[in-house]
Structures are given as C-alpha cells and as structure tokens.
Amino acid sequence: xxxxxxxxxxxxxxxxxxxxxxxxxxxxxxxxxxxxxxxxxxxxxxxxxxxxxxxxxxxxxxxxxxxxxxxxxxxxxxxxxxxxxxxxxxxxxxxxxxxxxxxxxxxxxxxxxxxxxxxxxxxxxxxxxxxxxxxxxxxxxxxxxxxxxxxxxxxxxxxxxxxxxxxxxxxxxxxxxxxxxxxxxxxxxxxxxxxxxxxxxxxxxxxxxxxxxxxxxxxxxxxxxxxxxxxxxxxxxxxxxxxxxxxxxxxxxxxxxxxxxxxxxxxxxxxxxxxxxxxxxxxxxxxxxxxxxxxxxxxxxxxxxxxxxxxxxxxxxxxxxxxxxxxxxxxxxxxxxxxxxxxxxxxxxxxxxxxxxxxxxxxxxxxxxxxxxxxxxxxxxxxxxxxxxxxxxxxxxxxxxxxxxxxxxxxxxxxxxxxxxxxxxxxxxxxxxxxxxxxxxxxxxxxxxx
Length: 450
Description:
Number of domains: 2
Order of helices and strands: EHEHEEEHEHHEHEHEEEEHHHHEEHHH
CATH architecture of the largest domain: 3-Layer(aba) Sandwich
Shape: elongated
Distance between the termini: 28 Å
CATH superfamily of the largest domain: LmbE-like
Structural class: alpha/beta
Oligomer: single chain
CATH class of the largest domain: Alpha Beta
Helix content: 40-55%
C-alpha cells in the first residue's frame, strides 16, 4: 500500500537520522524529527562524534575549547536535553563502546563555507577510512531497520568535512547493510529559502544583535528538492532544542546564530532530496514538493522486505555500475604500456655492486624499480576504469614490447636490450604476474555516487 500520511499505515514507521555532531540534528532536521515523533513514528538519531572540536559561544564557557574530553561531556548533556525537547527516546553515538570517533574540526574559508582544519586527532572522523565509518553506520541500520534514512547532501550543507564524510559513509552503509532501506533522503535547502533565512531586512532580525551575512554560507542544493516537510506546528520544540545546544547555538526570537555570529531565521519547512529508494510520484510532484518524508513510501512492503519493495541499495548499485571500458580506456592503456615498457626495458638491467667484507654484493635495483613502475601503472588503470580489461591489455603490451627489444635481428644495429639474464626474465614475466594478482582484487569508487 502506498501512503501519504502516517495515519494510514499498519506498521509504525522507523526513521534514522545520521548526523556528524550534536546540534546538527536540530539545526537541519529538528522540525522533521519533532513532527515525526508527534505522529507516532519511531525516530532514532545517530551522532557520529561528540563535537569535541567545536568552538564555544558563551564567554563563561570558553575554557572548554581545547579540553576535548570535558567539552565532549558538555555536548553529550546538551544533546540529551535537545533530544528530550524533540521527544526522541533513541539517541546513540556512532561506534558505541567499541569505537569512538572524534570531531575533525573545521575552519571558516574565505567564501564563508567550512573547510578542513589544518590538523585533526588520529581518531577523527575524517582521519578514519571511509569503509570503517560506513561499516559502523551499516551496523546501526541493521539494528534499527529504518524505513527511511536521512542525512546530509553531498555538499555537507555548508561544506563541513565531517558532514561530507557522514554523507559518503551513509550512502555506502545503505548499499552494504543487510536491511534494505526504503528511501534515502538528503537535507537540501532551496536557494530562495537560503536567501530568506539570511535576509537581514526581515522583521525581527535587527533586535537579535546577530551579524548580517555578507554571503550566504549554505551551499546551493545538490539535487532536486522533492520534500518540503511542514514543521510550523513544532517550531517551539525546535527552538527549545536549539537553545539546549548553548555552546554552539545562540537563539533570539525566531532567529539563531552559530559561532560565526551570523543570524539566520528558523524557517517553517525543512527540505529534502531523494538519494535513493522509493521516488515521489510525478502526480504528487505536479502540485509541488511532497509535504512529508514518508509520502508515496510503501512502509508495509519495506517492512516485509518484499522483492517488490523499492530497494535503495539496488537502485544505488544500478546507478553506480561503471560503464564498460571504451576506446579511450584501451588507447590510454596501450599508450601507458608503451611508455612503461620502454622505460622499464631500458633500466631493468641496472645494478649497484658493493664490496662487503671481501664479498661482492650485487643489488639489482633496476628491475625492482621497473616492476614498481608496472605496479603503479596497472593499479592506476584498474582503479580508474574499475575493470581488469584495460589493465590486462597494458600488461600484454608491456611484455610484447619487451620481447621485441630482446630480438637483435629486429632492432637497428642488432642491439639487444632485454637479455637472457634472470633480471630480464623477471622483467618479461613480472607484468603478467602482477596483472594476474590485480585481476582478483575488487575495487569500487571511494566517493558516493549521486
């Protein structure tokens, strides 16, 4: 059954919100969270870090900056208060007791967007390999079994590197989790709404004491906005949750500001694009953006994991399926192989001879360097085209070219460049051996497909 409202469902919908730091859940999705809870949905909020690297707004709490452990405890208390304001009973930190991810930090760039910090701790979210982060998120998905997963768009909202990492990891987690999520949504803000949010001429702004934005910090939307969740009935809950994050957010009337002091309006809608899974019907979108994150989502089919139910993982995999290598890929492989084959053949015989205690030691560094060049070239082809075919073509070209250079009757001056020595034998056999190993290595694009 297809549904537009929670009231017609036979299954209580479960929604998982994945965020990077305490306060993100309220700033970007707090109204949606409160609205869903009020409608009886089961809402889980997952915070990847405790926000240890954030700046502190209140002057009397400035001493927390740099005290990562103490700051983490304060922000844990803040998000607990915010969750109570929004009505959320299920909040967790990514990794649980097994692993602790820390805030990577950020800096404000010249365009008023966030950029990566100049340094970060070893266990920072952005210092952790993406598959590791995704694995922990996938474990939460399998535990919660959400019908909808909501996280940031690929731009991270305003560019925060932790937001971008959570987006990428969540996309990968939806792909790999055993539970099939019915819909993956990304927080996205329409350009006209962003202009309204930061409009310093609107009523009430001058009384806040906040600074006016010289440029709009929010980045343009990545994808088509298809959901405009009305949160006007729960704005009081969102304001209360924002106020709970007092180290990070200052609230004045219908406006709030982060550590940069730039004021923005608390708007009465929150907006989303679909990353994967069940689409919004064209009939619904004909009247504008859908009014609810669950619009046109068959909760019952998703709950039963019916083959007929839309599969976010399946849809993402089909969109991420790489194209078969074309002419350019093989031309690239041949040209690269000719270059590697020539350089390797010319240098593979080089050695250094040492006298160690009367014993002569020969170091065949030439063949080692030549084979390293092959490793780099073949791996480049494998990862660039996500296919073994161009890589194998390159290996064959390298071997054939080297064989030709070992036939003096085919070369001007009857030269022989590839000889019958052990080093030349290693050079002739090595590329195919390396290609054979790489052919069994599975690779995939590290970035999340849109």
